[in-house]
Amino acid sequence: MLFNKGLFSSTLGRNKGLLLTLLGSVMWISYGYAQTESASPKAMQAKFPNQYMSWAATSEQEERTDMLASYPAAIVLWAGSAYAKEYHSPRGHHFAVADVSHTLRTGVAPAAGEKGLSASCWTCKSPDVPRLIDKLGVEGFSAQNFTDLGTEMNSVVYCTDCHVNGSAELSLPRPHAQDAMAKVHLPFDKQDSNMQGAQVCGQCHVTYYFQPERSNKVNIPWIFGSTADLIEKYYDARRFYEWIHPVSKTPILKARHPEFEHWSRSQHAEVGVTCISCHMPPAKDATGQEFTNHQVSDALANYEQVCQDCHGNKSALVDSLQQAKTQIDAKAREVEGLLVKAHYEAGAAWEAGANWAMMNDAIMAIRHSQWRWDFAMSSHGIYAHNPEEGNELLDKAIVQANEARRHLAAVLKELAVTQVNYPDISTKQTAQQAVGIDLDKLTEEKQAFIKQEIDEHWPAVSHHGYSID
Length: 469
Ligand code: HEC
Ligand code: HEC
Ligand code: HEC
Ligand code: HEC
Prior knowledge:
- By secondary structure, the chain is mainly alpha-helical.
- Helix content is about 50%, strand content about 5%.
- The chain has helices spanning about 1-25, 25-30, 40-45, 50-55, 65-70, 75, 95-100, 130-135, 140, 160, 175-185, 195-200, 230-235, 260-265, 265-270, 275-280, 315-350, 355-375, 380-385, 385-415, 430-435, 440-455, and strands spanning about 210, 215-220, 245, 250, 280-285, 290.
- The N and C termini lie close together (about 10 Å).
- Residues about 1-35 have low confidence and may be disordered.
- Bound molecules: heme C (HEC) (4 copies).
- The site of one heme C has 20 residues, from helix 15, helix 16, helix 17 and helix 20.
C-alpha cells in the first residue's frame, strides 16, 4: 500500500493547498472533476471501500509484452515515428501514468524554445487531464508540451475518470469523448447505464488523432462513422497523415486501440454484453455485500461469474478464443511481411527516379493496407471482441498490400530495377538498426531525463512500478 499512501499525500499536498490559497472555494464548483476533498482517495476509500480496494488492485497487473520484439516487422511499418522506438502491450490501470512517462516514445524535454510532444499524450492516463482542460481550455491544454505537465499528474485512471465527483454516478469528463459519442448518435446523457458503462471505457479505449490545425487537441475521427472504411474516408478527404514513411514516402495513418469501435459492432454488444459485463463483473465481499469489481483485468478469468451463463462449455470457449487468436495473428504477420517488402520496393523505385504519377496507386494501396492492419492490431483483444471484423480487416489489408506490390513491380520494371534490398527483420534489434534507430542512445537520454526530472519532480504515480518506488 506504499503507492496509495504516496498518491494520497501527493494529491492533497501539491494540488489542494495551492488551489485553495489561490482561488478560494469557488474552484470547487468549476473544477467538476478535480480531486476535490469529496473525491480524494481518503474520502473514496472510506465511502466505497470495496470499489476502492479492487480499483487499487490493478497495481498487481505488472506483466506486459514487448510488442516490437513479438513482431519486429512493425518497426519497419512505423519507421519515422516514435512507435518504432518502444511499444508494449497494456497492463493494469495503475501503471498508466508511469508507463507513458517512462516510454521512449514520449522522449525527453524539448530544447529551450522548441516545441515538444503535445500534452495530449496525457489524455487517457489521468483525471488531472479533465481538470487541466477545465482550467486551460481544450486547446490551451493540448498546446502545452507533454513534459511540462508531468508535475501536474497526481492521479492515475481514477474514480473521477468515470464517476461524477465523489459519487457512484457515471460520467464522461473528456470533451473529445462527449463529442465522439454525439457523432455516432449515442450522446452519453441519453444512454442507459449499460451503454454508459461501455462509454466510460470508450473515453480512452478508442482510436483518435491529434488535430494539427487545433493545437493538437485529441479528436475522434467518427464524422462519417466509426468503421475503418469511414474513418479512412475522413482522413483521405482531409489529406491527413501522421508522418511520411522515410523509405516509401507513404503518408501514414496510425490507428490506436479501437476497442470501443470493435466491441460496438460485435454480437456481444447486440445482446447487451459490455466491457463492464466481462472486465468488471459483480463480486461479493466477506460480509456478502455485492459490488462491482473495479480490478479491470482479464475477462476470461471471470468465466464462472460471466461467460458461463451463455457459454456452457469452458474448454470449447477457450479453444475458440485460441483459434481466433492464432488465425488473426497469422494474417497479421502475412500483412506485415508484404508491407515491409512494399515499403522497400517503393524506396527502390524512388531511388531509381520514379515520380508521383507513377507511384500514386502503389502508395495509396500501402497507406490503406497499413491502416487496416493497424486498426486490427492496435485493438487489444480483437480476437475476443470481434474476430469477424479482425479477419475482414486483415483479409482486405492482404489484398491491398498485394495490389501495392503489383503496381510496384510494374514501376520497377519500367525503371529497369532488378534488385531490391529488403531489411533484416528477424529481431527487434536488426529491424531497429535497419531503420536507423539508435536504441542505446535513446535509452541513455531517456534515463538521464528520468533521473533529473521525473524522479525528482513528478508525483508518486509517475514512478509506479519503476525503480524508485
Ligand atoms: C474505468 C472506469 C471506472 C473507474 C476508474 C471507477 N469506476 Fe466505479 N464504476 C464504474 C462502472 C462502469 C460501474 C458500474 C455502473 C453500473 O453498472 O451501473 C461502477 C460502479 C461503481 C459504484 C456503484 C456500486 C457498484 O459497485 O456497482 C460505486 C460506489 C463506484 N463505482 C465507486 C468507485 C470508486 C470509489 C472508484 C475509485 C476508487 C471508482 N468507482 C472508479 C466505472 C469506474
Ligand atoms: C482514463 C483512461 C482509461 C479509462 C477510462 C479506461 N482505461 Fe483501460 N487502460 C487505459 C490505459 C492507459 C491502459 C494501459 C496502462 C498501461 O499499460 O500502463 C489501460 C489498460 C486496460 C486493460 C489491460 C489490463 C491488463 O492487466 O492487461 C484493460 C483490460 C482495460 N484497460 C479495460 C478497460 C475497461 C473495461 C474500462 C472501462 C471500465 C477502461 N479500461 C477504462 C486507460 C483507460
Ligand atoms: C464478451 C466479453 C468481453 C467484452 C464485452 C469486452 N471484452 Fe475486452 N477482452 C475480453 C477477452 C476474453 C479478452 C482477452 C484477454 C482476456 O481478457 O482474457 C479481452 C481483452 C481486452 C483488452 C486487452 C488486454 C491485454 O492485456 O491485452 C482490453 C484493453 C480490453 N479487452 C478492453 C475492453 C473494452 C474497452 C471493452 C468495451 C469497449 C471490452 N474490452 C469488451 C472480453 C471482453
Ligand atoms: C449474455 C450472454 C453472453 C455472455 C455473458 C457472454 N457471451 Fe460470448 N457470445 C454471446 C453470443 C450471443 C455470441 C454470438 C453467438 C455465438 O457465437 O454463440 C457470443 C460469441 C462469443 C464468442 C465468439 C465470437 C464471435 O463473434 O465469433 C466468443 C469468443 C465469446 N462469445 C466469448 C465470451 C467470453 C470470454 C465471455 C465472458 C467474459 C462471454 N463471451 C460472455 C453471448 C454471451
